Amino acid sequence: MDAVLICILLLGGHDFNNYELGERMTHCVDLVERADDAGVDPHLTASLAYYESHFNHRAVSKAGARGVLQVIPYHHCPRKGECDYVEVGLKALKRLLRKKRDPLMAVCHYNGGTRCGKRSKRWAKHVVRTAKRLRRVDISAN
Fold first, then answer.
1. Which residues are 60's β-sheet partners?
2. Residue range 38-54: average pLDDT?
3. Ranges of each domain in the chain
4. Mean pLDDT of 78-105
5. pLDDT tens for residues 21-44?
6. Structural class in CATH, domain 3-141
7. CB of 125 within 8 A of CB of 116?
8. Which residues lie closer than 8 Å to 1 by C-beta, 6 or more apart?
9. Residue 30 and residue 49 in contact, taking contact as beta carbons nearer than 8 Å
10. How many angstroms separate the Cα of 103 from the Cα of each of 4, 11, 35, 58?
């Protein structure tokens, strides 16, 4: 698994300024390595974070989700202000992958919560498809 290659493939075509691109690359590589260390598919995790936030660690959604994995602190963080969003996002994804036994359904529920509606399922298909492409390129490069 080549974390830098995965991140270049995801971020390479964007028109970020150099500082922004460097910052997002740093967060992407960190996420991919942490996912691999945690036993979570790094390709799926990178794809998920790409679609959730484009690796913007300052991202905040309308629903209050934060960080590169768009974690909702209310649901995942024990105390306000004391939360590693990557760690709790990886734990949540790992738990869903184990429970659902299907990456598509796990990603759908990661995004949609207890409901996996049409919009979340369509979004999850993009995430899973991108993860498969990343895996193919990463394997052929190594």
1. 66
2. 97
3. 3-141
4. 90
5. 999 999 999 999 999 999 999 999
6. mainly alpha
7. no
8. 32, 36, 42, 43, 138, 142
9. no
10. 23, 22, 15, 26
Q: Which residue has the tokens 């300052």?
A: 58
pLDDT at residue 110 above 90? yes
Q: What angle do CA 96, 128, 105 make, to 5 degrees?
A: 35
pLDDT (average), residues 84-113: 94
pLDDT: which is higher, 76 or 108: 108
The residue with tokens 């290659």 is: 5
Residues whose CB is less than 8 angstroms from the CB of residue 72 and which lie 6 or more positions away in sequence, other chains included:
63, 64, 65, 66
| Cα–Cα distance measured from residue 58 to residue 46, given in angstroms and rounded to the nearest whole number | 17
For residue 76, the model assigns a pLDDT of: 73
Per-residue burial over 23-60, b if 16 or more Cβ lie within 10 Å, else e, is bbbebbbbbbebbeeeebbbbbbbbbbbbbbbbbbebe
The three-state (H, E, C) secondary structure of 37-62, written as one string: HHCCCHHHHHHHHHHHHCCCCCCECC
